[in-house]
Amino acid sequence: MYQLAKARQIHMTHLVNDVIGNFLKGLGDDLIEIEKIKKQFEELGLEYDEELSKVRQNVVPRIIVKDNQFIIHYDESYLNKNTPLEYLEAIVMEEQFIRALDKQFSCYSIDSMPKVTNPRNNECDNCAQTKCTMKIRLWLWAWDKPFIMALPPDVMINWDQHKLKLFNSNLPMVAANTVFKISNSNVIVDIRGSANKQTLVKAVQARSELGGLMREVTEKDFPEFVSF
Question: pTM of the entire structure?
Answer without folding.
Answer: 0.73
